């Protein structure tokens, strides 16, 4: 559990970095053999991007990896992954996803599980509070991010 907490703390740090930049506070890290190989945060606002969710940014920052690497990775994300990010997780064969919270947004966890991905939801208070505060203060931006 100690490593899980350590890597989720890194994802939370990414989320806070995104929020400090005026973006949406969702962060992610990708871990291979106990080492972070990719980290990122939601940059839709900062980059004017339609796809740079935290998970997608972490994948982008991990760079090209052999499929054998991805099949041994764990992706940590502060918020339940949306259908786009879940699709990327499935595409690259990432076998485990650790989610900070899914109360403010329930993504495609069922899709991941139906395809053999191990999903662990931490119900992390800090992740939940970051999102609740953001959604309260930026409802239009949040609705845009999730496609409403």
Topology:
Elements: H1 2-20, E1 27-32, E2 35-41, H2 44-47, H3 54-62, H4 67-70, E3 73-79, H5 83-91, E4 96-101, H6 109-114, E5 118-121, H7 125-137, H8 139-145
Parallel strand pairs: 3-4, 4-5
Antiparallel strand pairs: 1-2, 1-3
**Based on CA inertia axes, which overall geometry fits?**
globular
Q: What's the arrangement of strands in the largest beta sheet?
A: 2-1-3-4-5
Total count of helical runs of at least 4 residues:
8
**Largest sheet, described in full?**
5 strands, mixed
- Termini separation comes to 36 Å
Query: Structural class of the secondary elements?
Result: alpha/beta
**Percentage of residues in strands:** 15-25%
Poorly predicted regions are none
- The overall pLDDT average reads 95
Helical content (DSSP H or I, runs of 4+):
40-55%
Order of helices and strands: HEEHHHEHEHEHH
What's the β-strand tally? 5
Radius of gyration: 14 Å
Overall description:
It is built from eight helices and five strands; from the N terminus they run αββαααβαβαβαα. The model has no long low-confidence stretch (mean pLDDT 95). Strands 2-1-3-4-5 form a five-stranded mixed beta sheet. The protein is of the alpha/beta class and 148 residues long. Helix 7 (125-137) packs across helix 8 (139-145). Strand 4, helix 6 (109-114) and strand 5 form a beta-alpha-beta unit.
């Amino acid at each position: 559990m100690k490593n899980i907490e350590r890597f989720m703390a890194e994802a939370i740090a990414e989320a806070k970095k995104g929020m400090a930049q005026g973006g949406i506070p969702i962060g992610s890290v990708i871990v291979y053999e106990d080492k972070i190989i990719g980290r990122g945060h939601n940059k839709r606002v900062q980059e004017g991007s339609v796809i740079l969710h935290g998970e997608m940014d972490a994948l982008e920052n991990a760079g090209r990896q052999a499929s054998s690497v991805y099949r041994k990775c764990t992706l940590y994300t502060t918020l339940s992954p949306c259908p786009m990010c879940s699709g990327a997780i499935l595409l690259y064969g990432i076998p485990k996803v650790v989610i900070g919270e899914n109360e403010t947004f329930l993504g495609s966890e069922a899709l991941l599980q139906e395809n053999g991905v191990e999903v662990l939801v931490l119900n992390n208070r800090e992740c939940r509070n970051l999102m609740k505060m953001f959604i309260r203060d930026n409802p239009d931006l949040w609705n845009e991010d999730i496609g409403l």
